[in-house]
Write a sequence for this structure.
């Protein structure tokens, strides 16, 4: 009851502030159209935003531990988040400045018009890509190397149970988490990328084929896709991987997983490619090409595909995230990438018990969150980039 | 007129549009004065800033456009300084707007009368019941069929011309002082257009409403406006009383606009009776699904001749073209090329047969692949049919670009989006020529273009015909185009050939009644044309009403 009352009072104060803000704006600027025609909802939004900002600053300035020396989890996590946000913004800003200064005329123009979020996304993707390709060179230890020091707390501070040799700590059997995160980029991201690519080759070409030929080919493919889509995808892939494990194991099972997830995801790509293709097929230039006597391959790859790249590329980004999360989820369930290969989903699962320490020992709780954070960061980054590409391809301005 | 009080006063209007992060001028300092009850015609080519200026007269700009300088006063109210609330009280009530495409402007989910009464009830002018009754009265005055009942239909249940009139009624619903008409008849057939024009003119006169009438069609504006203002690329060229302007244009640009319709080719001598036609359409009946849309259509097209196929939308002109190209195999009948029967389906035709029949499309935007460079678009048929590659192919493409009067070096590597409408249409022509065909189907190739540009395209096609001995089938609904380029004319209505023969016979009586109706519906530059026609035929014998009577 008390909390509810507080919320109502806070909202009332914000509402009053919003009104006062608009009124003050009208007075000070001599009734400029910006304040004169400002809807109340907008001024309320300004006030709410300001209130949230002040609240955030207040929380940041609170002491990180109480009198007894026990850390306050909310303050500690909030400070980490704020620090990360500031570092990320600065890094993205510098990256964008760099992109504007070097490179060709065209690439500089792209960077000039790029929002900060997209620059951040591209930067993160580049770092992940770098880590994935050069994992063997930059990782301090091997992914399956076991040390005697198990359960070292991240942070590298011996006073808190850390160890400078393992800056991000070690897991429950003593493997270096930093090294496993870097190798995880190679395994998880690499496999997700291969799977998404396969899904697009399959779904894209079949979708365009259905859109171009129509008739019974379209019916056959579309109904087959409907059947596949009718089954919940995670359960379906679990089922198929279990079936596949009867015949193959180890690397073979990983390949089976790639194919299974690719086929299931190809159904979504098929739908998109077919829908986009249908809109392109009715264009006069396709009719002109047909009347010229062009073959199917030319129609699909030379006339339709170039016009479908924008939506397909955007879908590629999103689909990549979904595949990536599916693989992590499967690994979490123990069916995905098999040990001793490092994988972020498995890492979250292995260390998940430490989450319970969050209330009084944020450092310890951080160890499973590192891998989870790596997954979340890549997902957010890819979505930033996809949003930006969609915005560009749709020709929206502001 | 000059003694009446001023309603709209625009002074030194400069407007800018945003593109690629910078503001570029669209209107470069235009004055506009409109008196109460006066109709001002704004004409110019696309991109001249007509619509932008028309919208600015109601103090409104589209997204990405701003008024950088100048003032707009409406009945003493400064519209640019007015608050959103003040404007809300004016728009819809005292200032109304009629858009080009009524079909796209009505909400498809609501009945016409509900959309009609929204304005009056919002502005507290009338109750909903009063407004509905008033709506029916307006529908009657605008000569809509079944005025008491038509309002209860949804937009898709009403034809285009009727929708446009329903929209005019909606604009009238609060009895505004000013209506802005933005190309209200451009999307309509001639016989429908004349009806809409007549009813708009009557109702504007009856309620003494001032109007700004935006159009690119001179003959239309001549019927509607008291004064005409000509715009060119954001600048005013000249302004004058309609009669004075028509009889005595002062500026060179205005004169060139007036002269556009004068291009006319001499009629070629008739071909000898035993000559084999290039294309012969023989007794073609075709159907979409189970419904026949063409009924026993036959005509011949001879070497070096142009046959114009005219008719309104839905008359089967384009369907005939689809039968000839083989996209829609006819149910009965066949097509002959040089006396040899063509396979009905284009998929069964060989490369040589496909090469001989080429097509140029109405919308150059959708006819050119936006992701391909000009060199690739024209180069593909060169490579595909002639087998030319590398340097030879490039030379041939440059030759073709030369033929369509575009400098090759400059255009070879451009994308279609970097070209103007007329240039795109020329690329479409070059692509057809690249196949070195005998016969080209031109499907409304000039109807999306401004008149000066369209004339250039027609001249180019005529020159190419003389040079290469091409045969054209020219699909159009514009009789002025027919007059300028055709040798023979085929008039179609509801999938039937109504009349066919040489052009000279066509434009002289006696006609088939439908041809007569079509011919008489084409607006002429004479400002008294509409009044005279209405006096001669009566309001019930024009437009769709007359077409219905014929059926």
């Amino acid at each position: 009851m008390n909390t509810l009352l507080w919320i109502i009072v806070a909202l009332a104060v914000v509402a009053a502030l919003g009104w006062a803000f608009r009124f003050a704006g009208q007075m000070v600027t001599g009734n400029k159209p910006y304040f004169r025609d400002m809807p109340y909802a907008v001024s309320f939004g300004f006030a709410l935003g300001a209130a949230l900002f002040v609240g955030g600053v207040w929380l940041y300035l609170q002491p990180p531990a109480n009198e007894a020396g026990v850390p306050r989890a909310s303050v500690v996590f909030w400070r980490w988040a704020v620090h990360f946000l500031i570092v990320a913004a600065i890094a993205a800003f510098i990256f964008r400045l760099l992109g504007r200064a070097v490179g060709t005329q065209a690439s500089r123009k792209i960077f000039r018009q790029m929002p900060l979020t997209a620059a951040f996304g591209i930067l993160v993707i580049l770092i992940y890509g770098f880590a994935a390709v050069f994992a063997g060179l930059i990782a301090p230890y091997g992914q399956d190397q076991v040390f005697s020091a198990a359960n070292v707390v991240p942070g590298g501070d011996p006073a808190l149970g850390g160890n400078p040799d393992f800056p991000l700590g070690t897991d429950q059997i003593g493997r270096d988490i930093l090294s496993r995160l870097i190798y995880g980029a190679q395994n998880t991201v690499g496999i997700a990328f291969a799977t998404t690519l396969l899904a697009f080759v399959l779904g894209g070409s079949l979708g365009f084929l259905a859109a171009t030929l129509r008739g019974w080919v379209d019916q056959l493919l579309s109904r087959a896709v409907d059947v596949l889509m009718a089954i919940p995808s995670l359960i379906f892939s679990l089922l198929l991987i279990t079936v596949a494990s009867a015949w193959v194991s180890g690397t073979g099972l990983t390949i089976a997983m790639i194919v299974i997830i690719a086929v299931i995801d190809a159904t979504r790509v098929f739908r998109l490619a077919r829908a986009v293709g249908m809109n392109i097929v009715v264009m006069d230039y396709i009719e002109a090409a047909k009347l010229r006597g062009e073959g199917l391959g030319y129609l699909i790859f030379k006339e339709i595909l170039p016009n479908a790249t924008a939506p397909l590329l955007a879908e590629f980004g999103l689909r990549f995230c979904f595949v990536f999360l599916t693989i992590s989820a499967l690994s979490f369930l123990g069916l995905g990438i098999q040990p001793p290969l490092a994988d972020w989903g498995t890492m979250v699962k292995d260390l998940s018990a430490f989450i319970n320490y969050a209330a009084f020992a944020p450092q310890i709780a951080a160890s499973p969150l590192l891998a989870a954070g790596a997954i979340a960061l890549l997902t957010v980054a890819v979505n930033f980039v996809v949003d930006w590409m969609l915005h560009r391809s749709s020709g929206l301005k502001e | 007129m000059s003694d009446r009080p001023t309603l709209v006063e625009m002074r030194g209007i400069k407007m800018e549009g945003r593109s690629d992060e910078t503001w570029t001028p669209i209107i470069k300092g235009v004055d506009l004065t409109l008196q109460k009850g006066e109709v001002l015609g704004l004409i110019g080519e696309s991109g001249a800033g007509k619509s932008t200026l028309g919208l600015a007269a109601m103090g409104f700009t589209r997204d990405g456009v701003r008024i950088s300088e100048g003032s707009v006063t409406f009945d003493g109210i400064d519209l640019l300084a007015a608050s959103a609330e003040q404007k809300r009280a004016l728009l819809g009530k005292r200032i109304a707007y009629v858009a080009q495409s009524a079909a796209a402007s009505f909400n498809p989910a609501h009945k016409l009368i509900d959309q009609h009464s929204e304005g009056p009830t919002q502005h507290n002018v009338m109750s909903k019941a009063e407004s509905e009754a008033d709506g029916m009265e307006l529908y009657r005055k605008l000569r809509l069929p079944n005025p008491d009942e038509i309002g209860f239909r949804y937009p898709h249940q009403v034809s285009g011309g009727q929708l446009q009139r329903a929209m005019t009624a909606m604009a009238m619903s609060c009895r505004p002082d000013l209506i802005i008409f933005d190309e209200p008849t451009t999307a309509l057939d001639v016989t429908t257009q004349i009806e809409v024009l007549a009813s708009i003119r009557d109702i504007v006169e009856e309620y003494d409403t001032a109007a700004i009438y935006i159009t690119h069609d001179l003959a239309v504006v001549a019927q509607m406006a008291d004064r005409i203002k000509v715009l060119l690329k954001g600048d005013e060229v000249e302004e004058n009383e309609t009669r004075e302007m028509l009889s005595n244009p002062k500026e060179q640009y205005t004169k060139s606009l007036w002269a556009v319709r004068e291009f006319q080719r001499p009629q070629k001598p008739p071909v000898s009776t035993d000559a084999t036609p290039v294309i012969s359409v023989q007794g073609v009946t075709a159907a979409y699904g189970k419904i026949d849309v063409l009924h026993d259509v036959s005509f011949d097209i001879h070497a070096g001749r142009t046959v114009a196929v005219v008719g309104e939308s839905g008359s089967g002109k384009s369907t005939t073209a689809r039968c000839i190209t083989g996209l829609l195999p006819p149910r009965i009948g066949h097509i002959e090329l040089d006396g040899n029967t063509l396979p009905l389906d284009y998929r069964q035709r060989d490369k040589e047969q496909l090469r001989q029949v080429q097509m140029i499309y109405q919308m150059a935007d959708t006819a050119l692949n936006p992701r391909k460079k000009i060199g690739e678009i024209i180069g593909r048929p060169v490579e595909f049919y002639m087998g030319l590659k590398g340097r030879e192919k490039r030379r041939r493409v440059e030759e073709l670009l030369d033929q369509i009067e575009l400098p090759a070096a400059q255009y070879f590597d451009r994308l279609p989006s970097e070209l103007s409408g007329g240039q795109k249409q020329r690329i479409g022509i070059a692509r057809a020529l690249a196949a070195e065909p005998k016969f080209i189907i031109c499907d409304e190739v000039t109807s999306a273009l401004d008149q000066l540009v369209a004339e250039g395209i027609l001249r180019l096609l005529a020159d190419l015909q003389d040079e290469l001995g091409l045969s054209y089938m020219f699909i159009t609904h514009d009789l002025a185009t027919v007059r300028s380029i055709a040798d023979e004319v085929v008039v179609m209505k509801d999938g039937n050939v109504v009349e066919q023969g040489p052009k000279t016979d066509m434009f002289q009586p006696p006609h088939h009644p439908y041809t007569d109706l079509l011919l008489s519906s084409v607006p002429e530059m004479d400002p008294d044309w509409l009044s005279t026609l209405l006096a001669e035929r009566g309001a019930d014998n024009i437009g769709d009403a007359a077409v219905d009577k014929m059926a």
In short: Chain B has three domains: 7-91+226-257, 100-219+522-551, 279-508. Residues 100-219+522-551 of chain B form a domain with the Rossmann fold fold (CATH 3.40.50.300). Chain B touches chain A at residues 18, 21, 64, 83-84, 325-327, 346, 349, 351, 354, 357-359, 361, 363, 366-372, 380-381, 384-385, 431, 435 (CB under 8 Å).
